[in-house]
Amino acid sequence: MELRDVDKKTFRVIGQELGVSATRARAIYKDAQWRKKYHSGGEEAYPFYGVSTRAAHICHNLGLLCKKDVKAAILDGRLKVGKTHNYGWKTQAELVKWVGLPPLIKLKRHINACPHCGKSLNLKSK
To answer: Confidence band (pLDDT; 50, 70, 90) for 103?
Structure first.
């Protein structure tokens, strides 16, 4: 980060010094920025131990840095099935368990009409 922030070098020059491409130099810089931002909170090196890669990516992409951020996002509706990309019932159940919330109830959909023709279905049991 010092090469970019203090010395004001371009990613191309930084990449040449490190022996990598400019794109890789930028990726290294962005990762270092994220780690610096996360470490300023004084928590572990990587916050998403114990969750799947999908759940970790969702949290990272939403800028959620720790369990308390994820918990707040679940409670205020930022993490919601059908609203968040790649966030379904299994991922929600995983994150709810990880942050220590009670399991959320999955509402069942009752189908009263045929999805193809729209005719009413008689689903009464005998």
So the answer is: confident
Whether 51 and 26 map to the same domain: the answer is no
95 burial level (CB within 10 Å; 0-12, 13-18, 19+): buried
Shared-domain flag, residues 87 and 119: yes
Structural domain of residue 27, as residue ranges? Answer: 1-42
Contact 106, 89 (CB under 8 A): yes
Total number of domains constituting the chain: 2
pLDDT tens digits, 21-47: 999 999 988 888 877 776 665 555 456
Single pTM value for the model:
0.52
